[in-house]
Amino acid sequence: MITFSGVSKRFGGTVVLDGLDLTVAEGEFVAVIGRSGTGKSTLLRIVAGLEQPDDGTVESPDEVAVAFQEPRLMPWLKVGDNVALGLRDQARAVQALAEVGLEDKAGAWPLQLSGGQAQRASLARALARRPRVLLLDEPFGALDALTKLEMQSLVGGLWRDHGWTVVMVTHDVDEAVRLADRVIVLGDGSIKLELTVPGRGPRRPDDPALAGLGQELLAALGVSV
Ligand SMILES: Nc1ncnc2c1ncn2[C@@H]1O[C@H](COP(=O)(O)OP(=O)(O)OP(=O)(O)O)[C@@H](O)[C@H]1O
């Protein structure tokens, strides 16, 4: 579904991606982790067509939707209108709000939503576009721990139902192994480590099989705990 072949990206004198090769299969959920500044968001922006690589080639479908850490809702539009913005078929917005459990908030203003609800609305806006690929850039980074677990279950369940291909950038090792089929650690412009997670997400957060994988990822990130 997504193929990066020898992709390099530089900003000024800084090499952010250095001949990166990556293939994401249709329906696969890939989590990308890495230290700050290792090019995770740049990778997502290239998939979304918001940045062009300096070298190499990228293949990805046109039907890509992105959800960011900040919900980025327009404060002057009601929640339903935010989700429906740019859509010809308004019924899709209603359906998407129902899928994220916000059917009763279509008439609310974004400022009347909690952080978790705003993130749900942002997700609804992405899924109303019926994407084939969903890109998530630290989508739950600003949420409290309990809301975060609920949102992970929601996104994992929607992923299963819709058969999306998902690429999610996260700093949270537990989140990566809970949701993804495969976790990629970025560093020095390329993939430092790639781990396949057994089973299918969303997994139970206390699944004992996940603890060892989390430790391995932390070690690859240079974190000693
Ligand atoms: N448009 C831009 N112009 C100049 N430099 C940029 C631009 N976008 C990113 N960079 C630089 O490229 C590097 C990688 O940025 P990127 O946001 O992809 O990293 P990241 O791994 O997502 O970081 P974080 O985990 O902190 O979000 C950083 O050094 C950043 O300053």
UniProtKB/TrEMBL annotation:
The keyword Transport applies. CDD domains: ABC_NrtD_SsuB_transporters. Keywords: ATP-binding, Cell membrane, Membrane, Nucleotide-binding, Translocase, Transport. Transmembrane segments: none annotated. Residues 2-213 form the ABC transporter domain. Gene3D superfamilies: P-loop containing nucleotide triphosphate hydrolases. One of its GO terms (molecular function) is ATP binding. The keyword Coiled coil does not apply. It comes from the Bacteria. This is Aliphatic sulfonates ABC transporter ATP-binding protein. It comes from Kineosporia mesophila.
